[in-house]
Amino acid sequence: MRIFLTTSAIILLISLLTMQGGLTSCTKDHTIYDTVTVIKNDTVTVIQKDTVTIKDTMLTAEILSANQWKYQVYVGVFGGDSIFYYRGGTSNTFNYDNDYIEFYNDGSQTGFSQDANGYSHLIKEWQFTNPEHTQMTFKWYITSSSIYHSVTWDNIRYKNKSIMFDEYYHDNYVNVNVHNQTVRIPK
Length: 187
Prior knowledge:
about 190 residues
């Protein structure tokens, strides 16, 4: 009886591990549509199959500079303090309703932002740092100052007209590290 239970447990474990691997396989976001077109030429019927693949849209300079971008979601750590913001949420730890950022694609590689407190900030030297445009860097200047933060956006995804990314930098004004995961939407 003990051998039967042990063997059954091993078979069950192997089955579950096999099924889990099959159910959790990783794929890129894309959809494949098969279409069938029937063409009738007197008595001849031709069936054609087309496959259309829709891939994720790469964030381009044109998309980035087409809008001012406001926070939809901000979850992060500022120094040692946790910050949570969801637009329209009631449990926010900070209010980013009036915060936005914009990038100019006029060859100057500059931009502008307004922070949650209403202060304006100049952006300089923004650039994508890889060919896939999943990472970018820029300098974010403190209002009327030569102090700036070297900001990195990493794991950038553009989907459903939203920019999702990890952001990190050292806040040189108050001397703390900042890391957050963010979703920005057009203003």
